[in-house]
Specification:
Blueprint: E1 3-7, E2 10-13, E3 18-25, E4 34-39, E5 46-51, E6 57-59, E7 67-72, E8 77-82, E9 91-97, E10 110-115
Parallel strand pairs: 2-10
Antiparallel strand pairs: 1-3, 3-8, 4-5, 4-9, 5-6, 7-8, 9-10
Length: 116
Amino acid sequence: QVQLVESGGGLVQAGGSLRLSCAASGSIFGINAMAWYRQTPGKQRELVAAITSGGITIYADSVKGRFTISRDNAKNTVNLQMNSLKPEDTAVYYCNYYPIVVVKVWGQGTLVTVSS
């Protein structure tokens, strides 16, 4: 059974950086594409970045050039390095499979708050 746990969020000033981590347990992690998503109240869930099993990456236009997604299949982790953070990046960040999410593995997410 796969379970995903997100960590690394916090409160930062605009222009600052955070590194998020997603840890998977009991998984087939290494053969699936993974992604970071984010959500704020009243807004649809948004794909932030995705990475395939082969390391190909996809980024939302809003974060391209600022965020970097990576994975370590041996450790069952996927990370998101976030630089030059903006207030509009404020959201709860979640990891899951890509392109089809698996409802059972949604974690609690990690809150990122960026002050102006």
